[in-house]
Design brief:
It is a single chain. The protein has one helix at residues 3-12; strands at residues 19-23, 38-51, 54-58, 63-66, 72-87. It has 88 residues and is mostly beta strands. The chain has one domain (3-87): Jelly Rolls (Sandwich), CATH 2.60.120. The longest helix has 10 residues, at 3-12. The radius of gyration is 12 Å and the shape is globular.
Amino acid sequence: MNEADFRQQAQAEGFGDPQIVEFEPNLDVDMHIHDFSAFVMVTSGEFTLVTEAGSDTHLPGEVCTLAAGTLHTEKTGADGATILIGKK
């Protein structure tokens, strides 16, 4: 998916204006939850989302969603990661 398509889909699904978030290399944060749902597109690097259901690694152009209140952690590869994230 490209950025324009991502932004269009985010808007159509009721997510806020996507923001850029940069993550440091080899990030491995503690498990946590957010009070918002997220629609994410990786723009660079390797971004892994780990939930109780398993682990999914996403590369540039790939998207994922995370429901509010889902216990999870984010991990990155050796080059870190940059994502676009829409929240609702």
